[in-house]
Amino acid sequence: MDRIWKMSILITVIILADQFTKGMIQQSFMLGESVPIIEGFFNFTYVRNPGAAFGMGRDAPDVLRAIFFLFIPVVACFWMLFLIWKERRNNFLLCLAYSLIFAGAVGNLIDRFSLNYVVDFLDFHIGYHHFPAFNIADSSISIAAALLIWDYFLQLRAEKNKAPVATVESIKSEEKIDSAKN
To answer: Which listed residue (111, 138, 151, 178) is catalytic?
Structure first.
C-alpha cells in the first residue's frame, strides 16, 4: 500500500478518535466537571478553549480570532497537504509529522467552526499544579513537533557523517598543495 494511503488512514483515525472523545465528554460531563482517572495525576475534565494553545488569545476581538483561529489554520492545512504529498516518497518521518499536524489541525478546526471553541479534556496534574487541558488533536500536533525535531537532528547527523566527495579537481588541488610543501 502506498504511503499516502497509510497516512490517509492515520489522519482519518486521529480525526475520528478526536471527535468521538470530544463528543463523549460533551455528552457525559457538565462544563468544568472533572473525574479522576489516576488519583492525583490525571483527570478527564471538560474544558472549553476559545483561544489557542493554553488559552492564549481567548479574549481577542472576534475579527482577530477569526483570522488566527480559522483562516490561518485552514491555509496551514492546505500547506500540510502539499508537504505530505511532497514527502510521500522521500522522508517517512516528515510525511508522518505533517500528517499528524494536519489531523490535529482538522480535529480542532471542526470544533472551532462548529462550536466556536475547542473541547479539551485531558487534564494532567501533580497536586494543585495543572498542565493546561488538551485533547487528542493537540497530542497529535505535539507528537508531530517531536518528530520534526528528531528528523532535524537525524538530518544534521547525516550531513556530519557525509564524507566529502572526491573530485578530480579536489585531488589535483591536494596534489598541488602537497608538492608545494615538499
So the answer is: 138
